[in-house]
Amino acid sequence: MSESGRGMDTVSILQKYNFTTRKRFGQNFLTDPHVLSKIINAADLTKDDFVLEIGPGLGTMTRLLCEKAGKVYAVEIDRDLIPILHETLAGYDNLEILNEDILKVDIPTLAREHNAGKPIKVVANLPYYVTTPIIMTLFEQRVPLKSATVMVQKEVAERMQAGPGTKDYGALSLAVGYYAKPYIDAYVPPNCFVPRPKVGSAVITLTTHEEPPVSVEDEKLMFDIIRAAFNQRRKTLVNALKNSPLLSFSKEEIMGSLQDMGLDENVRGEVLTLEEYAALTNRLLKC
Ligand code: SAM
Predict the structure, then answer these.
(1) How confident is the model at residue 2 (pLDDT cuts 50, 70, 90)?
(2) Which listed site, 110, 178, 228, 229, has its alpha carbon 20 to 30 Å from 80?
(3) Domains of the chain
């Protein structure tokens, strides 16, 4: 199909079904065929892959996923899109469509029932209003995941990939780094979507680690410490942790742990690496 043909596709489907996009569901449909191929190439699909697509929308990307992957499972929250998807994607026998909020789907059970518990790939142009909860759900539910190739807001992609000491570094960078290796595949301007979003976008691939890169005795405590550190990122780490309702360590315990690690008592949370957060957690657990 010609470039403009595919571009027209999204618009003509919208017109054919007289579909009005819904802002509350983050509906910005992709129209640019180059971007679609970039996502598909970044996901590196083969017929051995089981793909979970979150928010298939009008099915523009779903069609390409069905052609490249072995099986595609598409979860769409908007019930008005379901008949459109069934019609535009009729003929693909390796596709299942579920009308549900992805945050209510038990994805590990889905992977177990439909892919014998083997690791799956997530490919999605994500609704921006729920990007972080969706990514964190994938990680925290322990979804058997090979990789997630997702379109997100540009700033979110940069936060996911940021390193210590930079302005974008935060709890999301550390969570992503704990579970996966991030790589920004492409930046995507607003004119590649209808309607145009107000923000720039980026495609990012998160390739999950087989084993976490650091050893921590209590993951939940480490993420509470990280959250506390970045909730008050202007304060010193000692004060941010001491004042946090998430934690109950004394100033002395926190200072002692930092000293043991050779860190300055005035250090801020934004310069600690994932390894240092893991080490701090393991030390505080001994207090
Ligand atoms: N994949 C399509 C594309 O690339 O053109 C649509 C992408 S659009 C940015 C996001 C899609 O996610 C919309 O179809 C929207 O209805 C759907 N969506 C929003 N929130 C969702 C949720 N919680 N669970 C499942 N789908 C959701």
Answers:
(1) very low
(2) 110
(3) 10-208 (3.40.50.150), 219-284 (1.10.8.100)
The model's pLDDT over 56-107, given as tens digits with 9 standing for 90+, comes to 999 999 999 999 999 999 999 999 999 999 999 999 999 999 999 999 999 9
Q: Give pTM, 2 decimals.
A: 0.94
Residues 6 or more apart from 173 whose CB is under 8 A from it? 159, 160, 161, 162, 163
Backbone angles phi, psi at 202, to 5 degrees: -150, 150
Alpha helices in 17-122 (DSSP H): 33-43, 60-68, 82-88, 107-115
| Pocket mutation for ligand 1, best pick of 125, 134, 149 (most atoms within 8 Å of C-beta) | 125
Q: Tokens for 18?
A: 């007289």
Tell me the per-residue pLDDT of 242-265, one tens digit each, with 9 for 90 and over: 999 999 999 999 999 999 999 999
Q: How much of the chain exceeds pLDDT 90, in percent?
A: 95
For all residues of the chain together, what is the average pLDDT? 95
Neighbours of 15 (CB within 10 A): 10
Q: How far apart are CA 122 and CA 150, in angstroms?
A: 8
* Plot region of 61 (φ>0 → left; ψ -120 to 50 → alpha; else → beta): alpha
Of all protein residues, the one whose alpha carbon is nearest to atom 5 of ligand 1 is: 29
Going through 3-58 in order, the beta strands assigned E by DSSP cover 29-30, 50-54
- The residues lining ligand 1, judged by C-beta closer than 6 Å to any ligand atom, are 25-30, 54-57, 60-61, 75-78, 81, 101-103, 125, 127, 130
Which token pair is 287? 């207090």
